[in-house]
Design a protein that fits this description.
The complex is a heterotrimer. Chain A has helices at about 25-30, 35-45, 55-70, 95-105, 120-135, 210-230, 245-255, 260, 270, 280-290, 330-335, 340-345, and strands at about 10-15, 20-25, 50, 80-85, 110-115, 140-150, 165-170, 175-190, 190-195, 200-205, 235-240, 295-300, 305-315, 335-340. By secondary structure, chain A is of the alpha/beta class. Chain A has one domain (about 5-345): Peroxisomal Thiolase, Chain A, domain 1 (3-Layer(aba) Sandwich). In chain A, strands 5-4-6-7-1-8-13-12-11 form a nine-stranded mixed beta sheet, with helices on both faces. Chain A has a three-stranded mixed beta sheet with strand order 3-2-14. Chain A is globular, with a radius of gyration of 19 Å. By secondary structure, chain B is α/β, with parallel strands linked by helices. Chain B contains 15 helices and eleven strands. In chain B, strands 3-2-4-7-1-8-11-10-9 form a nine-stranded mixed beta sheet, with helices on both faces. In chain B, strands 5-6 form a two-stranded antiparallel sheet. The relative contact order of chain C is 0.20. In chain C, the strands form two sheets. A five-stranded antiparallel beta sheet of chain C has the order 6-5-4-7-8. Chain C has a three-stranded antiparallel beta sheet with strand order 2-1-3. Classes of the chains: A alpha/beta, B alpha/beta, C mainly beta.
Chain lengths: ~350, ~375, ~130
Amino acid sequence: MLKDGTDMSGIISYGSYIPKYRIKPDEIARVWGEDPENIRNGIYILSKSVPSPDEDVATISVEAARNAIKRRKVNPADIGAIYVGSESHPYAVKPTATIVASAIGADFRLFSADYEFACKAGTAGMQNVKAMVDSGMIKYGMAIGSDTSQGAPGDALEYSASAGGTAFIIGKEDPIAEINDTLSVTSDTPDFWRREGQPYPTHGERFTGEPAYFKHTIGAAKMIMERMKTKPEDYNYAVFHQPNGKFPTRAAKSLGFTEEQFSDGLLTPVIGNTYSGSMMTGLSAILDKASPGDRILAVSFGSGAGSDAFDLTVTDKMDEVDRNSAPTIKEMLSKVKWIDYAIYAKFKKKIVFGESVD
Amino acid sequence: MTEVHIIGSGETKFGEMWDRSLRELAVEAGLKAVEDAGIYSRDIGILYGSSSLAGTLNLQNDIGSLLADFSGIASNGIPAVRIESSSSSGAAAVREAYLAIRSGEYDVAMVGGVEKMTDIYGSEILDIVGTTLDREWETFFGGTPAAMAAISARKYMHDFKVGKEAMSMISVNDHANASKNPNAHYRNKITLEAAMKSTPVADPLNLMDCSPISDGAAALILASEKFARSVGKDGVRIKSSAIAQDYLALHSRDSIYTLNSTILAGKTAFEKAGLKHSDVSFVELHDSYSIYGLMELEDLGFCKKGKASELVMDDIGLTSSLPVNPSGGLKAKGNPMGATGVGQFVEGYLQIRGKAGERQVKNASTGLLHSMSGTGSTSVVHILGGA
Amino acid sequence: MGELSSVWRESSHRYRLVAHGCGNCKAVYFPPRDICPKCHRDSIGKMKEMELSGRGKIESFTVVHDVPPAFIRQRPYVLALIRLDEGPTLTAQVVDCDPSEVALGKRVRSVFRRVREDGKSGIIQYGYKFVLE
């Protein structure tokens, strides 16, 4: 709850990574005989990011982590915990967090683990490291949400499932954004899942909407505003989990947020759904432009289901940080390479080789 | 110290020898050499086997023992060891045999070089030939022998403003000479235009810039002067032998188109032989990739750095002042790696005795043989004849 | 069969470009060396680990069309010799670009990528690649 400002933990630095390749829904629709208009208008996806064949959750997490370190010249030895949330970890057993730790040169004395809670595993990590910072267990903690999400060929998810990730370094010393409060809601709601050994997830189609996404996201948002005694107009920015362009827009509007508040954090229409990276990357885009004093509401959603809500206030320290010392989201959205479905299928390993090759 | 003479040679056809195994190829070349020398197996003091990749290609190591065994001399107790230095293994093995005789320890030494490269299929061959580079820092990151040669080629072409023709001409010349060599892998002639336009392998190198995957074996009998005289053989004298080393990985070298190992070995070979470049009647170059042909002509001192293109575009044919690769070279005679360097001696032995048939270089008295590992980590230079 | 400890052993070098600097002549070596080829025995025990910036320029390059099995999805790929700002030169892929964009002298920076994987059940081998600045 509200604490003395000087003592409040928050975001020390942040960094994101979005792969360079993009595919348009027109290309996917062409292959499966669907009308791209339905995708563009229906779920509001104009393009999505595609990882190259040499990228995975570990490489995306490392790049995001390095950007976070670079942005504020954080000493990796000060990072006491690394948690990586994803539903597409390269290994089923063997952590991604250890790869990140090694790649950034973190200390041997380190708390770390991989998290999984569909699309909110990264924000669960944020809550975890915040608690560790607040309790004095660590100086800084790094939470990463990153995915190279899977959508079965021909499935509606194929239009949105994309790749990207964001890392937040959380601590108490001079945060650029204080975390005023965070809370979560949880219920056992099977809207989307992937069974062990299955290459692609399965979803409950329209069941993913009201009882899952909207109930949890809106519920958590309302709960945190109630606890903070705030109203939508108290926030400069709002960002929500973005499985497509339509859901977060509807959620925001129904809560009473205006387009001006939520458009900066809404990235899915151009990069697709980065799953565990989704809300966090939207928050990253907001931090790229937010000013001291700005208040941000951020709510993630993970199928299965639950939501993590955060209430943040940008501090004066933001002005002391050269935000361009690491790539901004805008920069990552401007330098892209368009690919067709054939190259996409090759990159995403939907084209399978014989046993001797990858 | 005794002089060392080649008194017999033998080789198999180089190429895709589908019905011949590693050991069959080696034994065939070995028996031809023994027969050519007119000696008996009991005369052999030591056997040096060379193979670059048998351990990975054929999952067979201990090539020395294999050769001794299937040549039928294992029970005689004749020592047999393998010499391996990647693609210069054959030349390095000949040098060891040369030293063994020159030291007085043995009177007769046999060298057998062999490689059986076509027994595996698929692109795994690139992983295997990649072991001749620095596996941890070149091959691991996507380096292949052709790619490393191409990296040298691009910089060379850029810095010396040399067009692709000069590289292609190395291959055109190889094919022209190989068309006259019945043991060559490829006996077709190619035009400069075709050579320049073939399938890309590692830009700027294409298929016609790259030596093929060949099977083959070559063998030599070396003998001391005393032994050679006792069996009434003049043979061909190994006038000098030199070997030198450079960094294993291309990226560690100061210049990526200068073969320091070749400069050093070449210089030493000339000095030891007491000969000048103008004394050389022909050269056999290790042109595993055409760019190396240009670099080697320069680094062996046959022309100034960056000027090999002028020499090559002028004339390097059999009737030129410096015939290059009368055998057909690595591009067209073929490149069965462990046999390649030994095969150069077979060519030298034939040329200097005037027995090279259609591809005979006129008045061939002195031959320079150059063999090299990978991108130039080891260079071995021998000068034959010199009479 | 599979590679394991050999990959693990090199991870600081391949993940973070940890080089060896000679304490005697100050030369920087990457790939790392335990002895300085200039100072020889004078460098014994004086080689120190140091992290490189990952910035440099393209010394030369090739576009590889005949690719080993691990690189088939990336064919053709750019392989370059990169001279790092701290001095040493290394061999690495230049990714996320068309081969036509690559030229001698262009500035590059390192990125963290998958390089190989040991079949479907073995370990994934990560390391440096480069992108155009």
